[in-house]
Design brief:
This protein has 257 residues and is α+β, with helices and mostly antiparallel strands. The chain has a single domain, classed as CNF1/YfiH-like putative cysteine hydrolases. 24% of the residues lie in helices and 26% in strands. The protein is built from 7 helices and 15 strands. The chain has helices at 43-56, 127-131, 134-145, 170-178, 183-189, 201-211, 236-239; strands at residues 9-14, 17-22, 30-32, 64-65, 75-77, 90-93, 99-104, 108-114, 120-125, 153-157, 167-168, 190-193, 196-199, 219-221, 246-250. The strands form 4 sheets. A 6-stranded mixed β-sheet has the order 5-6-9-8-10-14. α3 (134-145) packs parallel to α6. The longest helix has 14 residues, at 43-56. The protein is globular, with a radius of gyration of 17 Å. The N and C termini lie far apart (39 Å).
Length: 257
């Protein structure tokens, strides 16, 4: 059985077994995968895995847009047509025939949708991306490019390493300080236990979303730690460089055009 989740998160059937979903953004096709779906290995295996994800949200495999993730806050909007895989960590789509996806193995897979479901985003936030405010940039740029306000967005944080397991060094806290975050922010986001330092990516990204204008009751965190559930989630911190990848994926609501 998959790990217990709390509302608004639920497990639903998917072509490979189950996918995690968030009913708060359930009006748009979306999900997060588990280790039941392999996304690393031979070219054929990877192609099959991503095709299954595309099918799960009803888009053609070639219309599931992914990026070469670079641990920053660069945006790629799928209104752009390109045969070159973009370098980006934030992907937007306003086309119901075109989904977007990010892959992670401890980093935060963030999914965002506006109320009508006409515009969606998938963002990848590891510690470097979180330090440069990927969540806040995702919101501010969605609002800048489309005629709605941040309080009309809903956001969900999928499975990612939790503050229970993400032990870090003081250099990470220094990196956040250098990025301009306040001492109060650092005290809230970096936790000390038994002489060790831990980073809470869940709270950090939720706080950044709220500061960007998303109401707190529209921000949802799955609280599923990838490192704590080896039978269900891949974790770079737990398993090292050879680990697999999970995906967070989303596409706009059907029937809007």
């Amino acid at each position: 059985m998959p790990p217990v989740v709390e509302q608004p998160f639920t497990w639903r059937p998917a072509p490979w077994g189950v996918a995690l979903a968030c009913s708060a953004i359930g009006h748009v096709p979306h999900g997060w995968t588990t280790r039941q779906l392999q996304l690393r290995g031979s070219a054929g295996l990877e192609r099959s895995g991503w095709s299954a994800i595309a099918g799960d949200i009803g888009v053609e495999p070639d219309e599931l847009v992914r990026a070469r993730q670079v641990h920053g806050a660069r945006i790629f909007d799928t209104v752009t047509t390109s045969d070159v895989i973009p370098e980006a960590d934030i992907l937007f789509s306003a086309r119901e025939d075109r989904g977007v996806a990010v892959q992670v193995a401890d980093c935060v897979p963030l999914l965002i949708a506006e109320d009508a479901g006409a515009v969606v985003a998938a963002s990848h936030a590891g510690w470097r991306g979180t330090a440069v405010n990927v969540a806040g940039v995702s919101v501010s740029q969605l609002v800048a490019r489309h005629p709605f306000r941040a309080n009309g967005l809903r956001a969900a944080v999928g499975p990612s390493i939790g503050p229970c397991c993400y032990e870090v060094g003081t250099e990470l806290r220094d990196s956040f300080r250098s990025a301009g975050w306040s001492a109060a922010d650092l005290d809230a986001w970096f936790l000390e236990r038994d002489g060790r330092l831990y980073l809470d990516l869940w709270r950090t990204n939720a706080d950044q979303l709220e500061r960007a204008g998303v109401p707190p009751d529209r921000i949802h965190v799955s609280r599923l730690c990838t490192a704590c559930h080896p039978e269900w989630f891949d974790s770079y911190r737990r398993d090292g460089p050879g680990t697999g990848r999970l995906a967070g994926y989303i596409s706009p609501r059907r029937g809007l055009s």
